[in-house]
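Fig. S4 source data, part A: sequence.
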Amino acid sequence: MKHSPEFRSKREEERAELKKTAGYKVWSVMFTILYPFIAVFTFIFSAIVMFFSGISRIVAYLFGGSHAER
């Protein structure tokens, strides 16, 4: 919540000053531009991991099933 300047904490003042820096602005723009790519990569990578996990479960069931009965 925004406070009037006389009631702002030291941390709020520091945060307001950091938001004025070039690095913060560059980070904000880059994150905004790259976020869709990060999200798509995460989705694709998760799907690949799930696919191979399914294959692993099937193989473990086929070849490990006979050992589990002993």
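Fig. S4 source data, part B ends here. Helices lie at 10-18, 22-68.
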